[in-house]
């Protein structure tokens, strides 16, 4: 399904853009860790190391914003620092509609109903864009990772504490899919087939692959995807479970691993910036 028209390059980012337009800060807010870096959108490469700090407990908007302000300051000081006005992309494990959170998984419920985009922009004094964590991972994989150059229907599924999902049709994101909450065996799929479920139930790889087989077969039936990209921390062990799956769809491991959320967050911020007038 390779489609050269979806390959990176046509935007002018690789050539004359200033660092203000090319470099953005990506922040991936997870249930336990906040990971962040500056990213060059020309090639998706990080211009700083990936830095980490613990997610505050409880992860209220106030407490997370405080950490974000500190980390933006931290990034601005080191080598590879982004432009002082560069915008910030932030992932949350939440449904995000036009900047407003409509759910909260592993973060405080106080996010629900909050205009997170506006709230964080005010706290950071920068332009901020907010999106769902799996949507961010998908944006990164489709542009720079395992999904690049693929037209048609591409599903990115992240296996972690929950199950995240992102759907792309000819390279365009259909946001907020929430396929981790499809029913599987009478409960949410993520209760039975997330990486956390494997650990919690002490499942061996064949048993875990059975769960994934049921889940992916259901996704295949519903969406007829051309490609499924499997991400999340557990994807480093993909050889243990992906070869056991029997599906018509090609299933590949994510390539960007821990950096996908950061890169996708930065890309989301970048895509919101109007291109400079030539
Ligand atoms: C949440 C999603 C999130 C996923 C991965 C699910 O429980 O409902 O919004 O993308 O976990 O963090």
Please sum up the structure shown.
The protein has 278 residues and is of the alpha/beta class.
Domain module tally: 2
Unreliably modeled segments = 1-10
Give the full name of the CATH homologous superfamily of the largest domain: ATPase, nucleotide binding domain
**Shape verdict:** globular
Report on this model:
With 278 residues, this protein is α/β, with parallel strands linked by helices. The chain is 32% helix and 23% strand. The strands form 4 sheets. Strands 1, 2, 3, 4, 5 and 8 form a 6-stranded mixed sheet that branches. Strands 11-10-9-14-15 form a 5-stranded mixed sheet. A hairpin with a 3-residue loop joins strand 9 (153-159) and strand 10 (163-169). The longest helix has 19 residues, at 205-223. The protein is globular. The model is unreliable at 1-10 (pLDDT under 50). Beta-D-glucopyranose binds at residues 93-95, 103, 105, 132-134, 158, 160, 162, 164, 178, 180, 190.
């Amino acid at each position: 399904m390779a489609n050269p028209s979806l390959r990176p390059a046509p935007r002018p980012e690789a050539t004359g853009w200033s660092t203000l337009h090319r470099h953005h800060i990506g922040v991936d807010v997870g249930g336990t860790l906040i990971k962040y870096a500056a990213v060059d959108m020309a090639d998706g490469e990080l211009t700083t190391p990936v830095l980490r700090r613990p997610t505050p407990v409880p992860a209220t908007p106030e407490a997370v914003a405080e950490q974000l302000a500190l980390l933006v300051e931290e990034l601005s000081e080191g080598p590879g620092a982004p432009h002082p006005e560069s915008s910030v992309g932030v992932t949350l494990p939440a449904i995000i509609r036009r900047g407003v959170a409509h759910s909260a998984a592993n973060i405080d419920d106080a996010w629900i109903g909050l205009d997170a985009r506006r709230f964080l922009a005010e706290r950071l004094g920068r332009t901020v864009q907010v999106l769902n964590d799996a949507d961010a991972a998908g944006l990164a994989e489709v542009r720079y990772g395992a999904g690049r150059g693929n037209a048609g229907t591409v599903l990115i599924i992240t296996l972690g504490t929950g199950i995240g999902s992102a759907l792309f049709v000819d390279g365009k994101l259909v946001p907020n899919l929430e396929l981790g909450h499809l029913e599987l065996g009478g409960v949410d799929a993520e209760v039975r087939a997330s990486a956390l479920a494997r650990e919690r139930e002490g499942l061996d790889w064949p048993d875990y692959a059975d769960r994934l087989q049921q889940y992916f077969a259901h996704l295949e039936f519903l969406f007829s995807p051309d490609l499924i990209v499997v991400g999340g921390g557990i994807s480093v062990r993909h050889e243990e479970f992906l070869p056991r799956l029997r599906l018509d769809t090609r299933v590949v491991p994510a390539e960007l691993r821990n950096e996908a959320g950061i890169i996708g967050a930065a890309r989301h911020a970048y895509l919101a910036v109007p291109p400079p007038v030539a």
